Amino acid sequence: VRARLFEPFVTSKGEEGGGLGLAISRGIARDHGGELAHERREDGEPGAQFTMRLPILAPAAARKREIAPAALGRILVVDDEEAVRDAVAATLNRLGAEAEAVPSGEEALRRCEGPTAWDGVLLDLRLEGAAGLDVHRRLRSLNPVVARRVVFMTGDHSDESLLREARATGRPVLEKPFTADELRRALTVPAGA
Which burial class, exposed, middle or buried, applies to 74 when counting CB atoms under 10 A from its CB (0-12, 13-18, 19+)? Predict the structure, then answer.
């Protein structure tokens, strides 16, 4: 298990864990120029030991990006897993976006009905209730402009038919876990692309 600890969906907790915590945590550390590592315990006690190392100052390239971040605007994050939803929204806020997060496709559709202008919608393909592709189909009728700003995200790398169907919409698909740079690039794709 030690060799695969930071891979997404690897867990030793059975049904209790989703296997994303360490992958997301390492991604956040790396986004800040640092690292998260598993280390052997030297005290002989049971359990895991992790060390996060972060630079005191951001590397020069990261400082340059912080000075002039890409304008991402208002982004709606739709994911039924609270930890993922919160982590993605926090990353977007660090990138200079104004992120709001909702737990369901139905709530996302309600938020897209009104006058709120969304510059992007990060939409998980696997949601309880209405699936991401169904939400996107309904959004195309409800608000076609916002539907052209959807970026799908998924942790299901094994369902090729689902991935093909999502890509057939012409919208970007981010596979979890993704980095802050991948997130930024996906959201700055031109609206008509």
Answer: middle
The token pair at 61 is 């390239």
> Phi, psi at residue 154, to the nearest 5°?
-155, 150
pLDDT at 152 over 90: yes
> At residue 179, what is the residue type?
T
Neighbour count for residue 152 (Cβ, 10 Å): 25
Q: How many CB atoms lie within 10 A of CB 146?
A: 21
Give the pTM: 0.65
Q: pLDDT tens across 94-109, in order?
A: 888 899 999 999 999 9
Q: Tokens 């309880």 belong to which residue?
A: 128
Structure-token match 């598993």, residue found: 38
Q: Which two tokens stand for residue 161?
A: 């038919």
Kindly state the tokens that stand for 102. Answer: 């909702």
